[in-house]
């Protein structure tokens, strides 16, 4: 009888996962096809199958712009979703997200230093193309990495997770303050460059950058699947978790490292994309009504990919020349969606009892 | 070989001003198949003791041994194969099914990704069947009552396949029916050779269920013995501060001293017992040859040649006087 119940829940999960994957693939095609220039789906299918397309510029747009952007969207969506899920379970807090430990603030500080101080050294604005984007990536990456080191040191010393959360928030506030001071003494063009970075962007990655971005995110995603078993143990609360054999300290540090790799990489390459990582785990938990990470983690990965593709499709305003900042689109369209599900499902609090 | 042993263990909390010792010089042992009850007043350190011996809190001094191995040398994983816990705290997420909860008991045994083997599923099925919770298997935790949740938490502990199970107040918040079910379940588990330690305030659990009683007192060393010995020598009364109220250890009721009229009740045991209860509650003294005499025959109460068909009517008449 128990075996049957295991089988039936596995079957239901496979169906849902299948739908999520199919949706992701479909949206991927739609995403690549729409934009300032419409490219028919048949042509895209041909392109991916390796057949040559008559239209030279379409082929160029596809391989140099649309494809990198769609891949970025997929990886960013799944990375932010899964790291948000990890943080919400680790901190037993519905408002936690990938940036709760101050990763994005650290990145922001790094970028602000690069832009504003760089102005005095050599001039950030004079840099162009690859040099400029790699400078941003390394500045943001260094900032996140610094925060990661401090938080990890705290995690080794501290016994409880909530203190860690507050330390993360304090770092966020402090680095926000430094950024404000830097902005205050800066010139308009520099401030604009910083603000544009903080809007987030999925379209600024070339294959050159993707060759670093893709492996980093894939390592993080694989890590998060391996952590699912331990995250499930944490659902019982920390005392029970250690009573069923979980090494709390090690698990906590592994989760923090994993989230930092994912959120840090995303922020370094695409800027701080807020909201998404907080909202997506809720959407997934409410739709599938489970907190079991063995089931939830793969679903969150594919739902993240699917939804980020949808938001990116909206952001590139099909038929128009302009592109909206991805940060604005995710919140603008995501928030009403979350509210709608909250009102309809009413099952949020089941996941957060104490 | 003892499954569990403490040597000169002292427990409590550390803070800035020093150590706050709750209990010290604890030398306690659990043998295979034992049911041990731990009793004591609120704040005497029962939960602290359970958390300390299960490695959740640091001991202030002394040693803890599992199968003669010191606790400090056991990894969380190897400890979790010897000891399972049922605490007073609830899981933080209720959005998992009972099956998923019980499956978490297999955490120490499952592989790195958490997939369950056929053996794991067998053990889960056994744990659910033992606790009579098959009908709950597909329910979510938020759909369960307190009693059901307690039983599935015990099922989860069983799925851990440990020789020792520690339970912190397993009967608190449970109604009588559920309490008896949990008691029966624990007895069944012990018969299968598992050792159980229960921290409890419940007289029935401590006296009817357990083989050994540990009594924790304030400013005094812990007492160890069979429940009956500790009742007869007055230790239990002393530990629970029941002396002032005249606790009736045989019936398990509190005797509040009365100063009213002396009454004698004659009749079948059951009716006599409950009639006396009602009289005591209303201030009468029950004696052997009292000034008032009540007789019970065929479910009717006779007093001064009047007949009553319920205790309520008898009481109304008596109180009128």
Shape of chain B: globular
User: What ranges of chain B have pLDDT less than 50 throughout 5 or more consecutive residues?
Assistant: none
Termini separation of chain B: 67 Å
Which geometry of chain A do the CA atoms define? globular
Overall pLDDT confidence of chain A? 85
Which structural class is indicated by helix and strand composition of chain B? alpha/beta
List keywords for this structure.
heterodimer, A: 354 residues, mainly alpha, 77% helix, B: 321 residues, alpha/beta, six-stranded mixed sheet, globular
How would you explain this protein's 3D organization?
- The complex is a heterodimer of chains A (354) and B (321).
- Chain A contains 13 helices and no strands.
- Chain A is mainly alpha-helical.
- The longest helix of chain A is centred in the first third of the chain and has 35 residues, at 56-90.
- The two termini of chain A are 32 Å apart.
- Chain B has 321 residues and is α/β, with parallel strands linked by helices.
- Chain B has eleven helices and 18 strands.
- Chain B has helices at 46-53, 76-80, 98-104, 118-130, 146-159, 176-191, 203-209, 227-232, 235-239, 269-281, 311-320; strands at residues 4-15, 18-26, 29-30, 35-39, 61-66, 69-70, 83-86, 164-168, 195-199, 212-215, 223-225, 247-248, 253-254, 262-266, 285-286, 292-297, 300-303, 306-308.
- Chain B has a six-stranded mixed sheet, with helices on both faces. In chain B, strands 1, 2, 3, 5 and 6 form a five-stranded antiparallel sheet that branches. A five-stranded mixed sheet of chain B has the order 15-14-16-17-18, with helices on one face.
- In chain B, strand 12 (247-248) and strand 13 form a beta hairpin.
- Chain B is globular.
- At the A-B interface, helix 1, helix 8 and helix 9 of A face helix 2, strand 7, helix 3 and helix 4 of B.
